[in-house]
Amino acid sequence: LSFLSVKGPELINMYVGQSEENVRAVFARARSAAPCVIFFDELDSLAPNRGRSGDSGGVMDRVVSQLLAEMDGLNKSADVFVIGATNRPDLLDPAILRPGRFDQLLYVGIPTDRESQLKVLRALTRRFHFAEGFDLGSVLDACPSGLTGADFYSLCSAAMASATRSHIQALEQGELAPNNQTVLVTLEDFKVALRDLVPSVSPSELERYDDIRQKMSSSARPARNEL
């Protein structure tokens, strides 16, 4: 199974007709590599609500129409699947969400329960070497609420950077053998990282996303909610 990842803005071109051609090329490439999954990231930049894009030349309207035509053409083939991701589903053209197109909606929220958060931390730190007695649960206890996966990634990266600095300092001071290349991450490293960590999504933004989810869930195409 082939996987074709496309960022929406990459297909937009300043020359007349080139953006539509880029859309056609993506689907042509997928059909030639079938079975294939096309993943459109930042879908809202590729399929904004027509007539509201502020584009006097109508370029985005034509791009959306081309995307719809290509997706409708896939009904004849069961070997190409299309997935899209967006942080602004409220900006999408309604036609893109009709049956036969993006008709299955999945809301991916932030991890809110402890077990889900621990799974994220375990995945991000699977290659870390921890000091003796280290417990990821203690890290989670010190974290603020409302952290996204990206926030946890930033936290783990900063903790590793702190541990690396401590390791280099210990080598320079002769506290470790010169051939010791194993960086041990401690709870203190995570505490240092937490000092500068600010949740990337505010409570008001989370509330707005939940409002959008509820509106889309009450539409004719029920949306599933998964954390």
Automatic annotation (TrEMBL):
It comes from the Eukaryota. GO terms for cellular component: cytosol; peroxisomal membrane. Gene3D superfamilies: 1.10.8.60, P-loop containing nucleotide triphosphate hydrolases. InterPro entries: AAA_ATPase_domain (IPR050168), ATPase_AAA_core (IPR003959), ATPase_AAA_CS (IPR003960), P-loop_NTPase (IPR027417). Residues 2-109 form the ATPase AAA-type core domain. One of its GO terms (molecular function) is ATP binding. Keywords: ATP-binding, Nucleotide-binding. One of its GO terms (biological process) is protein import into peroxisome matrix. Belongs to the AAA ATPase family. PANTHER family: AAA-FAMILY ATPASE, PEROXISOMAL ATPASE PEX6. This is Putative nuclear aaa atpase vcp subfamily protein. It comes from Ixodes ricinus.
